[in-house]
Specification:
Layout (H helix, E strand, L loop, with lengths): L1 E8 L3 H13 L5 E4 L9 H4 L3 E2 L10 H19 L4 E2 L3 E4 L6 H13 L5 E4 H7 L8 E5 L3 E3 L1 H14 L3 E3 L4 E6 L2 E4 L4 E9 L5 H7 L6 E8 L2 E3 L9 E4 L11 E4 L5 E4 L3 E2 L14 H17 L4 H9 L4 H9 L10 E4 L3 E8 L11 E3 L3 E4 L10 H13 L2
Parallel strand pairs: 1-2, 1-12, 2-9, 5-15, 12-22
Antiparallel strand pairs: 3-8, 4-8, 5-7, 6-7, 10-11, 11-12, 13-18, 13-20, 14-17, 14-19, 16-17, 21-22
Helix pairs in contact: 1-6, 1-11, 3-11
């Protein structure tokens, strides 16, 4: 049996950040990170847009609001200290009609309550920031939004942790809890730890249930796809977002300027049918298919949180021209033929409350002195990585 002080399931940004926080606070502790994939950040972390969010989308009483602003600053500082790529391109949120102005001003209000630098600007001011963006009367400007390379950041964290003695075990995942803080892996090895930390992303709820947690929740996967603009000209210079539907946790199809300076549009929020439903029938698991279809059928029939409307709208985005039209409505002019390359899809591990049939908008953490379970580390979890880890350490580890 292999032993360590801390055993972490999953090597995405949250698992890596928690390992980093523990090692910084407890330098002599032994930490093992097990990951079912051959490398770090193979799922949500490595497939997200790379945007460092500013923190104005979230209500002031949420964990997201508390962690995002400072997480943005912390990751920027980390990138600068280690000379990692960062694009301080900012963001504008634009409106399509008068009906969206109320939500736009609500975003400004949330941002100011959260201590985030945001400003309502008129069309003339928008033109000075992003000449190609189109809006109805007003837009919201976020100068602290930026983009980074998630893989580069995670690789740097992994190398830092390896140098400090953290053990990474790849191609080996969690299989079963044997007894308190003793688990068996998919390669039939047993591990014992003083504390287990579950950052398993799409499978976090399943692991948590073996420890007596996540009884009220289940993860429902949503697929996000992106299209890359491949023509040589760069028609925009700032991230351009629509006003989101504040009743659900998705931000809508938008423009992202990557650290390389290229443009992509997306993501979608298409209901997926199994947890790693990236492409075709790859990674299909029938038990997941039947379970998730059951939950999605219930959501569809009851139209919980507008799921039926969401599903119809999102599935239409499999039509490439319709998908592109969602983005072109945000700008004055762009060559639609430039969107030619599909990038790697991602899956959002979205937590659903089984009783209320609500999508959980905020981060959800459950645990005790033996184990900690990160159940809803959805966007902006990447931005919040370091501050999220600080919170987990203070509340669940340093006790």
């Amino acid at each position: 049996m292999k032993t360590s002080d801390f055993l972490i399931f999953g090597a995405g940004i949250i698992g890596l950040s928690i390992a980093r926080e523990i090692k910084n606070k407890y330098p002599k502790s032994s930490i093992t990170v097990i990951e079912k994939e051959p490398e770090i950040a193979m799922h949500s972390t490595g497939r997200n847009s790379g945007v460092l969010h500013a923190g104005f989308y979230y209500s002031a009483d949420s964990l997201k609001a508390k962690l995002c602003r400072d997480g943005n600053k912390a990751l920027k500082e980390y990138c600068r200290e280690r000379k990692l790529k960062i694009n301080p391109s900012g963001k504008v949120v634009v409106t399509k009609s008068e009906s969206e102005l109320k939500s736009l001003f609500e975003l400004e209000s949330r941002g100011k309550k959260n201590g985030v630098e945001v400003a309502i600007i008129d069309e003339k001011q928008l033109f000075e920031i992003e000449p190609n963006a189109k809006t109805f009367q007003y837009a919201l400007y976020s100068p602290t939004t930026a983009t980074v390379d998630p893989i580069e950041i995670c690789t740097t964290i992994k190398n830092e942790l390896t140098q400090k003695g953290v053990l990474f075990i790849f191609n080996e995942g969690y299989q079963k809890k044997l007894k308190n803080n003793v688990i068996r892996t998919t390669k039939a090895q047993t591990f014992q730890a003083g504390k287990t930390i579950n950052t398993a992303g799409l499978y976090a709820d399943k692991i948590a249930m073996e420890y007596g947690y996540s009884n009220k929740y289940v993860i429902i996967p949503f697929k996000g796809i992106y299209l890359k603009y491949t023509l040589p000209e760069i028609p925009i210079r700032t991230n351009i977002y629509p006003v989101p539907n504040l009743k659900n946790p998705f931000l809508g199809v938008h423009y992202t300027i990557t650290v390389e300076g290229t443009i992509k549009i997306g993501p979608t929020s298409i209901p997926a049918f199994w947890r790693e439903n990236y492409k075709g029938f790859s990674q299909l698991k029938l038990n997941e298919l039947f379970s998730i279809l059951g939950w999605e059928s219930m959501l569809f029939l009851k139209n919980a949180f507008g799921f039926r409307d969401l599903a119809f709208e999102e599935i239409k985005k499999y039509n490439k021209q319709y998908f592109i039209s969602q983005a072109t409505s945000l700008v004055k002019e762009i060559n639609k033929k430039g969107f030619t390359e599909w990038t790697r899809p991602g899956i959002r591990a979205q937590l659903l409350h089984k009783e209320t049939l609500e999508l959980l908008d905020d981060f959800v953490i459950e645990g005790d002195t033996n184990s900690v379970h990160i159940l809803n580390a959805v966007s902006p979890a990447f931005t919040c990585g370091f501050t999220f880890a600080e919170l987990v350490f203070k509340k669940y580890i340093d006790i």
